[in-house]
Design brief:
It contains five helices and 16 strands. With 293 residues, the protein is α+β, with helices and mostly antiparallel strands.
Length: 293
Amino acid sequence: MQKKYMERFVGKYCKFITKEPGEDRVNVVSGTLEEVDYCDGFIIVNSYQGLGCLRIDTIIAIKPGNKNRIKKKTPFGRNSHAMVGIGTLIIFIAMVLVAAVASSVIIQTSESLQQRAQAVGKQTIRQVSSGMEIVDVTGYTNADKTRIEYIAISIKPRAGSYDIDLNETLMYIEHNNLTILSLNWQNASLSPGSVASSVHADGVFHTLNFSTLNRTNFGIIGIRDSDQSIYNSFGMSTDDLAVIIVNLSAVFNDTNGLLPGKDFIGRLVPEVGSSGIFLCSTPSAFDYRVVEL
């Protein structure tokens, strides 16, 4: 190559076609021609591999090119890069899905536990705070005053108690055996208003029709029912007071009632809350028909 032709390519991006002596193959080097040294017979080329020298006498052709159109060679091909990228993306998506499923399970479990804890807490509070209180127990003898035929149990809800459903309340009486009684809603004096409208003028023990009471049920009289909860739905609210009537002559049918000097244990068990427990002991003799037990 003559000097006048080599200088024209300085600073340009070219393809340098070289052929070493004794070789049949030609080599192609792409890069920017930086400098020509005719004294030593070399040119300096800046390629993607860095600066290098080519012998002038091995150059058989120089072809100018566009640097932007010539892609830099890399150790990996285009397909290799694509495969690595897709694999990484698949792993990333799998990790995201696993994390999403795990977080969803944890959130659902925590919500379920929270709801369960709240429900258990409410039930526990209601069970502890609710209950029935026994005010007093009074007996009513037969005409000869030899045995107690009926008892009247005054009840009211405990302080802070939830409403008590008398229709779901059971009575357990333990004597020679265990007797369980439920409310006879047909035999209940539940007229709204004052005490006089709920209880006859001749007393509590003459208010109900005792003939319908048997050993499986009890009657009820609403004594204080300002909100008419007993009258409307057999439910006792905080300030209510009621009297339960039990036919002991039917419950203790072997003696037709409770004899003098005897005792028995009773429990009023509401649907929710603590029970009202009472222990009745009869005196050795009955001076009056109404006996405090």
